[in-house]
Amino acid sequence: MNKLVLKSALAGVLGLGMVTSISLTHAMSFNGEAPSLDDIQKLVDVGEYDKAIMDLKAVLDMDLKNADGWNLLGYTYRKSGQLDLAWDAYERALTLDPDHLGATEYIGELYVTQGNLEQADVQLQKLMVLCPTGCEAYDTLKASIAAAQ
Known about the structure:
The protein has nine helices and no strands. It has helices at 3-13, 21-28, 37-45, 49-62, 67-79, 83-96, 101-113, 117-130, 136-148. The protein is mainly α.
């Protein structure tokens, strides 16, 4: 069976609808090498969300268990206003790594965006446990919650 067909079938069986045959083709254009998350973050930083999303899908095509990739995909979707897709990506990141600081912070930020400060605070409390001496994720979410109150 062709690797592309097998990979596409596996993604479908696993319910990974965000990883599409379009991104599989895109991943192949990297000659087996997906871009780095640092390079993709640079695209996000300058607002090139569509390109970043396509590159992130290529990364995830090569490693479906990449919690950092799912987290960055969620962040990119959130920044581009695609909140439902952001939820899905953050949940995948947290399924792979329940203690992922970035995904915990960002899902808290998504709660803030939606005005659900109670659930944002739940994420803040989780961050307090994950980094008891403090960390950037905790500080950033705390500031976002305070600004929204």
